[in-house]
Every structure is written in C-alpha cells, then in structure tokens.
Amino acid sequence: MTSASDRLISSLVKNLEPVRPLPRLRLAFAIILAVWATLLGVVLWAQESEAGLRWLFSDRIYFGSFAGLVVASIGATCSSLAAGIPGRERLETSGMIVSFVGLLAAAVACLVGMNEMASAASSGPHGIDGMCFRKGALLSLLPGGVILSFLVRGWSAHPLRAAMLALFASGALGTLIVHASCGFIEAEHLLIGHLSVPIALIALGSYPLFVILRRVRR
Question: Which of 56, 169, 200, 216 is close enough to 76 for a disulfide, judged by CB 3.0 to 4.6 Å?
C-alpha cells in the first residue's frame, strides 16, 4: 500500500514546476507607494509653474477633490493587489468600495464647485483639459506596470474585476500626481481633465487586460 501511494504521489507531482511565493501585500503596497512618490517628486521638481498643492488648505473644492483622490488611490491599490491573492476577497471588496467612495467624493466636490461658480466660471488655457488628461494617463503607466507585475504572479478568481481594479488604481495614482502639480484649479477642469482618467482607462483597457489575466490564470 505504501509503495503504491508513493508511486501515485510521485506521478502527480512529476510535471509540476517550482513556484515562487507571492510577495506580502504590505511590501507590494510599499513598492508602489515608493514608485508613485518618486514620480511625484520628479514632476514637481521639473515643472516651472506653481504646483496645485499650494491650494490644498486654502481652497475647499481643491481640498475635497484631492482628499477624495487620495482615498480612491489607496483603496483601489489595496483592492487590485488583493485581487491576485486567494483568500483576500474581503480586502478586495472593501478596497473597491473605498475607492468608489473616494472618487465619488472627489467628483461631488468638483460638481459643487461648478454649481457655485456657474455664473462666474473662468475659462482656462486652450487645450489644458486634454493636456492634463494625457499627462495623467502617461503617469499611470509606471505604477500600473508595477501593480500588474504583482497581479500576474498571483491568481485572480475574477480576472475582469481584477483588470478593472488595476486600471482604476493606476489611473487614480497618475491623476493624483497631475492633481498635485496642476496649477489650474477650476472645478470643471479638475473633473474633466483629471478625474476622467481612471474612468477612461477602465473603458479602454479592461478587455485587453482581462484577456491577459485570464491566460495567466490558466
């Protein structure tokens, strides 16, 4: 009986390849935070104009949208990392809820600002909405790549949801850098040029990333 069991076990594990353990969530989050902080520092150091952060405690619309983006970034990053680790479904769900609430709060702050300034809204420089949108999307690539590198090493039970979370997280992180560095704080611009980035990334990239994660899962 023992020899038969040993042969059975040997046949089952014969073709298995060694696997590397998944990194701890705290380590993954710390690496992504370090990458994001480095990008933010480079952007603030390289730009010649004043950063939007100077308005953080003097403009409540800017503060509300900034705080909402911070919450959305943290929640989405934690949720996207948890999506690739079996057994962390509770963190994935709670992070997803937190990220949605954060983005909603940021959007509401901008809408309130647009309503208050409806009669005296100032128009910004030509093309600034598109410029900030492209900048936010570009700055999303590096943190998004780091998130994806952790995600593909895991196993996503719901690859489409994991793809959407990864895109949301990377878009929120890139948008937060733009939000901190952009000196034009008109509420309409913050909503269109900044907060639309993670939504656009989800709309355009969810299916291709879903295909990748589904193949990795196999």
Answer: 169
